[in-house]
Amino acid sequence: MSRYGATVLDPVGPVLSAEEKAFFRDSDPFAFILFARHIEHGEQLRRLCGDLREAVGREALITIDQEGGRVQRLVPPMATQFLPPLEEVVQAGEHATSAMLLRYRIIAHELRSYGIDSNCAPCADVAGPETHPFLQNRCYGMEEQTVTNVSRAVVNGLLAGGVVPVLKHMPGHGRAISDSHFETPRVRASLPELQQDFAPFRALNDVPMGMTAHVQMDALDDQPATLSAAAMEYIRNDIGFDGLIMTDDCSMQALPGSRADVAERAIAAGVDAVLYCNGALADKVKVAEAAGQMSEAAQARAEMAIAARITPENVDIAELKAKHNALLNRA
């Protein structure tokens, strides 16, 4: 069997063109990602997921950012509207892990109903008072043990619902005070200080997939983690993460250079797959060519991630929603 393309790509819009189908067939990306612009209604979304898988000739993973709150691609009436994660954790108090497990089991059910079987969560970044607003209320807390416990609950809820989680943003984004969509955040903390940022990722190093942070940590390297062999080595050997590592979106301005150059540098640094979103088809072609096929090790990790996608047990979603609401109201 040939290896997958070392990419995770998005379609241009809600309907695949013949040109896109041919490109996906030839480049065979490991997985796909969807955004709000790809979603019109349930039937259309199911058709799009089916067409993406038909293009590559296999049941490829399809992921999405469905955190709840501000970052939620599926919205009512197609999906439940949730509080931002940090607000829910605070509101639930001592019931936070139970509430978040239920929340993400509900999210998993809703995603699977449309053909989506991966979610870019948990967000295991430890927040702080100066964490940039683009990220802060997407986190689960400002204390490493709380973040670890809630992140594990998120993982368990997603996996139980047949959705493969993506642990982000490794090795930690919480100290960033700038937005990596527009510039490269730089973290000057020492390696001992950074251990509290690394702790949740170390505790969850068994998650099938992870996503890098476009953050420069001076204690590790003078490059953003996504492009840093030293950071990737630290994630693998010290944090102990052995799942598939995909980049955060390589269209973000935190990473200088052409997108093809960024893709090539990320693969050389040690990531398994390049996430590239929002680009024109011609740019996707260049990124796919630069990323190439997965290495033997990356292919093995990809297959293990796919194997984590189970058929979930039937559950009463209305009952889960009632329990979830009760936990929030009880706190």
Helical element count?
11
Helix content: 40-55%
Radius of gyration: 19 Å
CATH class, anyone? Alpha Beta
| Number of DSSP-assigned strands | 12
Q: Kindly state the mean pLDDT as a whole number?
A: 95
Gross morphology: globular
The CATH topology annotation reads as: TIM Barrel
What structural class do the secondary elements suggest?
alpha/beta
**What is the number of independent domains?**
1
Name the CATH homologous superfamily: Glycoside hydrolase, family 3, N-terminal domain
Distance between the termini: 52 Å
Q: How much of the polypeptide forms β-strand, as a percent range?
A: 5-15%
Compressed to H and E, one letter per element, the order equals EHEHEEEHHEHEEHEEHEHEHHH
Q: Quick one: biggest sheet? A: 4 strands, parallel
Corresponding CATH architecture: Alpha-Beta Barrel
Strand order of the largest sheet: 3-2-1-12
Unreliable runs = none
